[in-house]
Design a protein that fits this description.
Strand content of chain A: 15-25%
Shape of chain A: globular
Largest sheet of chain A: 6 strands, mixed, barrel
Structural class of chain A: alpha/beta
Enzyme class (chains A, B): transferase
GO biological process, one term (chains A, B): pyrimidine nucleoside metabolic process
Domain Pyrimidine nucleoside phosphorylase C-terminal (chains A, B): 429-496
Protein name (chains A, B): Putative thymidine phosphorylase
Oligomer: homodimer
Catalytic activity (chains A, B): thymidine + phosphate = 2-deoxy-alpha-D-ribose 1-phosphate + thymine
Chain lengths: 501, 501
């Protein structure tokens, strides 16, 4: 059967988000001889490698029968140029789909089956519908503890694994769901100022308006390759970079491409995602923050306890020490929600500005203190005081600037072109702020794609406000997005509830 | 916000299988003003209607910034032509996705939530990954009885519903998984020859090498619209047409587009799919055949009993009378597997040819007899004899020809260009035939896309064979597919097991 005649690549520039797609003319020889139909999964071989892609059959003159087009992601994966040649052949059905179907039908996945699925995912052999089916089949408590361990281990093994040649290697993670809770850059600055090694690899937003990598990117470059990361960490003891550029858990990066549009982030996947990236990043000590609140990701102390147990068990099985902190998840943290707006809060805390958000500072100090104690850089009971000393003295700020410089240079976060304020409908007291609605509005305004977009909160729960006083502002880069977010605001007055005085 | 400036349509002819995709240039005004990104779901409005499509952003000269392209299915849905204009606007997030996420997380769907999901699916508002997640979340026994009833009812209500103004209206269905088990055209011929009304709407293959509609299409046109179906049924009392052309259960047709590549056909979906189409087709009496065997879809009497209970309960709730027959699913039925090869078997039985497959004839008579008794066209205990009389006298054959004529004209099924025989490796007795492998091989040979492709079995379980005697033949339209199927045959000698004598 072989790989057929070579086809000449033509740049079509079609961005399919992250699915590898190949475009072939209906009359191309390989389509006819192999009997390919639209949506077939085919193997595409170029000089520099091979991928599996979904076939879209083209019946127009944008391609000649001897030409092939690729989606942008496939073009990048194969590192090809206009006029290069590729060969296309049938991709045998994936063996791991049998295991996937078994899981969908309710059967347990053993370690070997889980590994087969994860390896195929990491290699890009799963079409989006397979990824979506896998994610849905594993959500809702349908991964047991052993399956979660197997998933985590397979995710680690499918990617790069860093070794720093020393211990402890500190890490932290927040389970999320709390807009504006951007403590990581502050914690890294304090921990490394205290002498800990903390090579922090962060993610971009999945379903939230900003990930730590998105926020850090408004202050310094984050897409560093591994040698660059090593140089930064050797020099400064820590970094805040995007993990996706290093391929620490490529299967997780693939799953995110369906979790994001589906708005899913389920327990077993969450544990595997978090812990696989910590283990792959070479961490020995991971501090995990779980905010608990009625509109946070984790809504009750019972749910938090279950998640803690699972995180601790899986981490221990993989040889990672964890300390878990439950924190207040009742309302957003700081003022800004969105990459640049959150960066402004981070900078205000590090620079000890008068108007810096106190809640963000206190959370960062609490977490830094716990991490210093956990990693032996402060005696039990003295961590917070040590952290506060490092922040108040300006040492944490200087360390942050040094890290940003080492990553490629510090910069001030951008400001949005359009701002619109939402006022209090009446005088009274702020009764509640809905985390989920705040996140949604920030996203409708353009975050995280537009780094400067998002939402700026002027009030906290319990604050007294006058009628017409500003509650929050929308920041957007286009009038369309500002209008769109504002329409949503108008339809959802419960975002910030003002109880009449 | 509005729908932005009009864009001029350009035919790109990209076949994305069945997902509606719109292609817009990166610099088009609506992309910039709305901040659209690749994979966004957008509303596309044309003169004749509107659809929801997935956005692919294009960065090349195949489109100008003022132009838009559509995938083939979107082009058809909107009934547009080159040069027509469309308007594109943001599609608000679907409310039913909240219910979908709830189901994925393990919550029950009430009737209203199920209806919201099914209505969005039927209207084409679900991207493939949402469909895949829904199917996976409902598989493996995760739909309870009430949810299955709600799903079935919502599927019926989302589409056309036929009313024949009389009773009984007979229908039959086989739960499938048994290659070559193509009794429907024979049963319709016998039942209508007996005076019953049987307007049979059939489906195309989902995961099998042939659906009844695929097989019938090799003998007569099956894509009839509703007025044409009514004319056929008024004249002849019955038909065998493709249900998809009539929109009886459009949500089910959408789900099939992910069930097929996923190879999924789970219990709750199966029951809802089967019964929604029967109810929508106006049936009052449905005979359901469940073949049971180790490599059939239903593998044990226990599984069959569970499925029977669910089918009967849901059907009764929707006011449909059912009679369920369990049949032997140990091995394929007839000789042919694949649309045209199965049609040859059907014709051999109807024409009472000497070499007609006896097992297919006996099954068709058994089912026809049960249906005649169930619908009151024969006294209990006399159905099979009545059916045999109609077949042996040639009345069923003449009725079949009349139906085929009324549908647009009878034709002989095609023959494949390439045939290759697989021989017995040794002398002995045929010990087993694996239904699943037989189906897979027929599909690798090109069925059901190539109507003439598939597999022709020369032996039954228990037959004695000499070394080198032909066991079965592969039929394909291209040498590549023949080779591909043969490679699989060589790797799977257990397809037809010959026990040495």
């Amino acid at each position: 059967m072989g790989a057929g005649h070579p086809l000449t690549l033509k740049w079509l520039g079609i961005d399919t988000y992250q699915e590898a797609v190949i475009y072939l003319h209906r009359d191309c020889e390989v389509c006819r001889s192999e009997g390919f139909e639209a949506q077939a999964r085919v193997r595409v071989e170029a000089a520099g490698g091979q991928i599996v892609a979904t076939l879209n059959v083209v019946d127009s003159d944008i391609l000649a029968p001897c030409e092939a087009g690729l989606s942008v992601v496939a073009w990048r994966q194969l590192r090809v140029a206009d006029g290069d040649t590729v060969r296309v052949s049938a991709e045998p059905p994936l063996d791991s789909l049998v295991a996937l179907r078994g899981k969908i039908y309710g059967r347990r996945l053993d370690a070997a089956a889980m590994r087969a699925i994860v390896d195929d995912i990491a290699a890009g052999r799963y079409a989006n519908i397979y990824l979506a089916a896998f994610v849905a089949a594993c959500a809702g408590g349908r991964l047991d503890v052993d399956e979660t361990v197997a998933l985590t281990r397979a995710m680690v093994d499918a990617g790069q694994r860093l070794d720093w040649g020393r211990a402890p290697i500190a890490d932290k993670h927040c389970v999320g769901g709390l807009p504006g809770n951007r403590t990581t850059p502050i914690v890294v600055a304090i921990a490394t100022a205290a002498g800990l090694t903390m090579p922090k690899t962060s993610s971009r937003a999945i379903t939230s308006p900003a990930g730590t990598a998105d926020t850090m990117e408004t202050m310094a470059p984050v897409e560093l390759d591994l040698p660059a990361i090593r140089r930064v960490v050797e020099r400064e003891g820590g970094c805040v970079v995007w993990g996706g550029a290093v391929g620490l858990s490529p299967a997780d990066d693939m799953l995110i491409r369906v979790e994001r549009p589906l708005g899913l982030d389920s327990e077993g996947q969450l544990v595997a995602s978090v812990l696989s990236k910590k283990v792959a990043a070479g961490a020995t000590h991971a501090l995990i923050d779980i905010p608990v609140g009625p509109t946070a990701k984790v809504r009750s102390p019972q749910a938090a306890a279950l998640l803690m147990t699972l995180l601790e068990h899986v981490a221990a099985t993989l040889g990672l020490s964890t300390r878990i902190v439950l924190s207040d998840g009742a309302q957003p943290v700081g003022r800004g929600v969105g990459p640049a707006l959150e960066a402004r809060d981070v900078l205000a805390v590090l620079r000890r500005e008068a108007g810096a958000p106190a809640d963000l500072a206190e959370r960062a100090l609490m977490l830094s203190g716990a991490l210093l104690e956990f990693c032996g850089a402060a005696a039990e009971g003295t961590g917070i005081a040590t952290a506060r000393g490092l922040l108040d003295s300006g040492r944490a700020w200087r360390k942050f600037l040094a890290i940003a410089d080492a990553q490629g240079g510090f910069r001030e976060p951008p400001r949005a072109a359009h701002v619109r304020v939402v006022d209090a409908p009446c005088a009274g007291r702020v009764g509640a702020i809905d985390n989920r609605l705040v996140s949604r509005i920030a996203k409708l305004a353009g975050a995280p794609r537009d780094a400067a977009a998002g939402l700026e909160l002027f009030v906290k729960v319990g604050d007294r406000v006058d009628a017409g006083a500003p509650l929050y502002a929308l920041h957007a880069e286009s009038p369309g997005e500002l209008d769109y977010a504002f329409d949503y605001v108008a339809a959802h007055p419960e975002t910030v509830v003002v109880l009449p005085a």
